[in-house]
């Protein structure tokens, strides 16, 4: 079996919650995309990263069913693990930095897959949402404190081919897919771009994501990362 690390990314203040991420530090042990996709499906995490050059930060990202040019959770987690100033993804070069307990990456929001950003009037409405039927990938959100930039959010993948399995850590997990994604950095970047301001997002059962717009259309997303094994 290929060696891999398991991280939890975008954890809450107490170190819980967040999404599990698999990282194969030595991608040379499995160079073929088909083999990587098969391993990602077997592991069943939201995403699995293969590190092709640890010094330069060259990475390859897979869900259980798809190869992704970019994703926030894998970039934040791998940047923390490798402690590098940048990552090279299929989408482009992602800046990375450490700031106390938070790891940040800088990317272009348009690298994120399309998401439906759906605003609700109150956090209670977001909390009370039932899982929608398959269809749109929905990022439901409401202001907890608009002046402070605090947001309550939940993410519903909707499409079966973008879901992991029950090991992905999402609420409402079921065999073959997750109904709700606990922590999604790409969607947070899209919301940041739409609102044009820094955000402190409480997502899912207790994950925390911080974001900030940057010059020339870039944006940062940051969070806590813990090594599970």
Word description of this protein:
This protein has 229 residues and is of the alpha+beta class. It folds into two domains: 5-105, Diaminopimelate Epimerase, Chain A, domain 1; 111-220, Roll (Diaminopimelate Epimerase, Chain A, domain 1), CATH 3.10.310.10. It has four helices and 16 strands. The strands form two sheets. Strands 1, 2, 3, 4, 5, 6, 7, 8, 9, 10, 11, 14, 15 and 16 form a 14-stranded mixed beta sheet that branches. Strands 12-13 form a two-stranded antiparallel ribbon. β3 (47-53) and β4 (58-62) form a beta hairpin. One of its GO terms (molecular function) is catalytic activity. It comes from Streptomyces colonosanans. This is Phenazine biosynthesis protein PhzC/PhzF.
Query: What structural category characterises the helix and strand content?
Result: alpha+beta
Order of helices and strands: EEHEEEHEEEEHEEEEHEEE
Quaternary structure: single chain
CATH class of the largest domain, named Alpha Beta
What CATH calls the topology of the largest domain is: Diaminopimelate Epimerase, Chain A, domain 1
Q: How large, in whole angstroms, is the Cα Rg?
A: 16 Å
Mean pLDDT: 91
Number of domains: 2
CATH superfamily of the largest domain: Diaminopimelate Epimerase, Chain A, domain 1
CATH architecture identity of the largest domain: Roll
Helix content: 10-25%
Total strands: 16
């Amino acid at each position: 079996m290929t060696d891999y690390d398991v991280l939890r990314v975008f954890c809450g203040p107490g170190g819980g919650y967040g999404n599990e991420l698999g990282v194969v530090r030595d991608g040379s042990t499995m160079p073929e995309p088909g083999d990587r996709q098969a391993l990602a499906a077997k592991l069943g995490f939201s995403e699995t990263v293969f590190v092709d050059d640890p010094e330069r930060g060259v990475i390859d990202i897979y869900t259980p069913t798809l190869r992704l040019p970019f994703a926030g959770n894998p970039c934040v987690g791998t940047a923390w693990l490798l402690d590098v100033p940048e990552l090279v993804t299929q989408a482009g070069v992602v800046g990375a930095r450490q700031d106390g307990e938070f790891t940040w990456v800088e990317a272009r929001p348009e690298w994120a897959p399309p998401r439906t950003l759906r605003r609700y009037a109150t956090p209670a409405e977001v909390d009370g949402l039932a899982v929608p039927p398959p269809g749109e990938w929905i990022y439901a959100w409401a202001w907890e404190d608009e002046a402070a930039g605090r947001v309550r959010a939940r993410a519903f993948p909707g499409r079966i081919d973008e879901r992991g399995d029950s090991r992905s850590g999402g609420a409402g997990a079921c065999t073959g897919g997750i109904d709700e994604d606990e922590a999604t950095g790409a969607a947070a970047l899209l919301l940041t771009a739409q609102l044009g301001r820094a955000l402190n997002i409480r997502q899912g059962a207790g994950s925390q994501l911080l974001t900030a717009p940057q010059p020339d259309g870039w944006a940062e997303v940051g969070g806590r990362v813990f090594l599970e094994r």
